[in-house]
Description:
The complex is a heterodimer of chains A (230) and B (98).
Chain A: H1 4-27, H2 32-42, H3 45-57, H4 61-71, H5 73-83, H6 92-100, H7 104-111, H8 119-143, H9 149-173, H10 175-193, H11 202-220
Chain B: H1 3-24, H2 32-50, H3 61-76, H4 81-97
Helix pairs in contact in B: 3-4
Amino acid sequence: MLGAKDGIPIGLGYLAVSFALGIAAKNAGLTALQGFVTSLINAASAGEYAGFRVIADKSPYLIMFAVTLVVNARYFLMSCSLTQKFSPDAKLPQRLAAGFCMTDEIFGISMAQKGFLDYRYTVGAAVVAYPLWAVGTALGIIAGSVLGDNLVTALGVMLYAMFICIVVPPAKEDKRVLAAVLVSMLLSLVCSLAPVVKDIAEGTRTLVLTVIISAAAALIFPREEATENE
Amino acid sequence: MSNYIYIAIMLLTTVAIRELPVLLLRKPLENKFLSSFLYYVPYVTLTVMTFPAILRVTDSLYVGAAALLVGTALAIKKVKMFPVAVCCSTLVFVLELI
Lengths: 230, 98
């Protein structure tokens, strides 16, 4: 199947990282089946991680909606870009199938295709990568309790490492992103230490900081073209 | 508070985010503020979730700080995601043994 081959390295990376995600899911009280289904349909590292924190915090359902909306907002942008890549003949079910597969990595390889995008390429990559993401999550939930604390802590760091790998390259290329990242680090640190604010649930804090800092960045450093760097 | 309701909200929201543009859009976003906002969101949110949380993965601040520095350095050197994750993870495991 088209795209399946390119889905293999992505899926293997997913397997390891989703294992760490599974440990976070277990801490939130999810069963292996719940984690599997969540990952298979959601396929969003940061979104799921933030969501598991909301569950762990037992925050209101509305917070879950708001956190998911903001943390996964980038997929909205990716899907917007994706619509530009289809042949005008592409049918709606085909477009929707490809839209379902928008992760950072699969979006990346799909947009790197020459000419119009054949939806089968995107779906093929996801058919390989998504189950590995889901299996890794379930394994993390099951084995997270078997492994020693040291090993669980060490594996948990993988997720942060993955986040670092997403943030650093654009911050290196684009000074505006670097500025936003540095301000985010500072404010996040302050909010984790400041009285009152530090007692707000982490998922909620992430949400509020993301909206404020991103909006400020958009006002101070607006991007000239909607498709710039995409 | 039920896990199933949380998960259902998470899934429906994520699928809607991915599919709404496909359903509705034929052109790129024209609104400069919105497209700029959406551009910065992933980097800000990942940074906020990673820092200072990574410093608290163990009882010692230095272990998390070491993972952060090594991960950042490797990412600057354009090492791929998976090897960086393995390096940081191994580093934390080894430092914890000491």
